[in-house]
Amino acid sequence: MDDLYDCADEAQLLTGMRMARVAIGRGDLVVIPTDTVYGVAADAFQPDAVQKLIDAKGRTRQSPPPVLIPGIPTLDALAATVPDEVRTLVAEFWPGGLTIILPAQPSLSWDLGETQGTVALRMPSNRIALELLSETGPLAVSSANSTGLPAARTAEAAHEMLGDSVSVYLSDGEGGELASTIVDATGLLVEGGKLRIVREGVISADAIRDLIGADLCE
């Protein structure tokens, strides 16, 4: 597969990263490794690229993709409000498998789908993903699979499902069995509101509860 690059090989890593940057820049899709399952990525600020991602997975705009970011400072650039409980969570679990839904900055010029004014953010713990993010900026990323099929744990498995809809595949060995844990933190912005577990993944609800010392909606 000419579009798949083995990042364990230094030459392929350099070429693959260059091709991935070019692909993202022109609005194409790239499959990347993360600390959980493999993801299919698009420039979060190119609406046509995000729509390509949604179409490749066979989803609708009612299922907007999360956004991966290169560092905690980007959290404040993309989220309108960050509650103290969220700062505690990211200090403990980022980089890692925790995706947090927050109100999006209203000034952002992007179109991720029907988000209801929110954005789901995560900082992954994978050297390839973080290096690419540091060069491209935030990427809209969803699990690298066709909707209804298991999430890909290898770049090869992603290629079987997504094929030519993706321009570049970056391989970094086998990914994890579980996806990230998704929490909705928008409830914390109202008095008496709670954090809600949307999907339990690599980080348990108990671990989150123990850290912030609060009840959760599950």
TrEMBL record:
- InterPro entries named among the record's database cross-references: DHBP_synth_RibB-like_a/b_dom, Sua5-like_dom, TC-AMP_synthase_SUA5
YrdC-like domain residues are 14-203
Task: Cite the GO molecular-function annotations of the record.
Answer: ATP binding; double-stranded RNA binding; L-threonylcarbamoyladenylate synthase; tRNA binding
PROSITE patterns for the chain? YRDC
Per the record, the major location class is: cytoplasm
Q: What is its EC number?
A: 2.7.7.87
The record's subcellular location field reads: Cytoplasm
List this protein's GO terms for biological process: regulation of translational fidelity; tRNA processing
Where is coiled-coil annotated? none
Q: Which UniProt keywords apply?
A: ATP-binding, Cytoplasm, Nucleotide-binding, Nucleotidyltransferase, Transferase, tRNA processing
Enzyme type, top EC level:
transferase
Carries keyword Ribonucleoprotein? no
Q: Which domain of life is it from?
A: Bacteria
Annotated SUPFAM superfamilies: YrdC/RibB
- Catalysis: reaction(s): L-threonine + hydrogencarbonate + ATP = L-threonylcarbamoyladenylate + diphosphate + H2O
Q: Which GO terms describe its cellular component?
A: cytoplasm
Q: Which family does it belong to?
A: Belongs to the SUA5 family.
Q: Any idea what this protein is called? A: L-threonylcarbamoyladenylate synthase
